[in-house]
Write a structure and sequence with these properties.
mainly beta; eight-stranded antiparallel sheet; seven-stranded antiparallel sheet
């Protein structure tokens, strides 16, 4: 029976960490279009747009910093970021600490499940059981990438989703989660929300019903890029300590 080469295994496991360590802060500035630290409020570090959180409250972040994150009540809490974010390609990154994983809970959503918008906007969420789920619809159906590993309740976890124009991929704590999805993403202009789906679509799927799928727990440091970050860049973002400021906008 052949024994595994422990040195080779250790070296292979170290490769993603080494690649992430080589990513410069300036690399993570490229394509950054929104950065909400959620340090008790909701101000975009890139554009200085000030969103208005509803029914949230400040809470300690993953490093114990007071008022370093926002807590969502699972019933009516949400943050509307407005309609400025319309990336055809994207990366969405966030830290989450769900209080439960027994329901559908939105992290970031642009879905308005109504005529004119039906099957045309993205949504990153947790499904029952705690696995990540990313809608990247084609306009002809609700195509989605699904995660393979559950997010545990009561613990901070870094989550991310990328789309490069042809494929979508989920990430959990800096590593790929689940299989990539090949899809041609279609979208219409809608608001971006943190912590809830903007419009549920009613019992028939196409009648106004208001927001739904509210997040129960804490969310911190939501960032959006208009490009798909590499594996190494996702690892670098996940490795950043709590409170790391987003790079300012401008040339690198």
């Amino acid at each position: 029976m052949n024994r595994p080469n422990l040195a080779a295994v250790a070296a292979a496991l170290a490769l993603p960490l080494a690649a992430a360590a080589q990513v410069r802060p300036a690399d993570l500035q490229r394509g950054l279009v929104a950065a909400y630290a959620l340090d008790g409020d909701a101000v975009d570090a890139v554009t200085r747009f000030r969103a208005s959180p509803v029914a949230t409250r400040p809470i300690e972040d993953r490093s114990g910093l007071r008022n370093g994150a926002l807590w969502f009540d699972g019933a009516r809490s949400a943050v509307n970021l407005g309609s400025a974010l319309q990336p055809a390609r994207f990366t969405i990154s966030a830290w989450i600490r769900p209080d439960a994983t027994d329901r559908v809970m939105v992290i970031v959503s642009k879905v308005r499940n109504l005529p004119g918008h039906y099957q045309k906007n993205l949504e990153l969420r947790l499904d029952p059981g705690g696995r990540l789920f990313l809608h990247v619809p084609s306009g002809q159906g609700w195509e989605a990438a699904t995660g393979a590993r559950p997010v545990p309740p009561g613990r901070w976890t870094h989550v991310a989703a990328t789309y490069d124009g042809a494929r979508a991929q989920l990430y959990l704590d800096g590593a790929r989660d689940g299989q990539p999805l090949s899809v041609r993403y279609a979208q219409s202009q809608t608001d971006t929300w943190i912590g809830a789906r903007p419009e549920g679509g009613g019992a028939d799927g196409r009648t106004p019903s208001g927001p739904t799928f509210f997040f129960l727990g804490a969310i911190d440091d939501v960032r959006v890029w208009d490009r798909a970050l590499s594996d190494a860049e996702i690892g670098a973002v996940a490795a950043q300590p709590s409170g790391t400021p987003a790079p300012p906008p401008g040339p690198v």
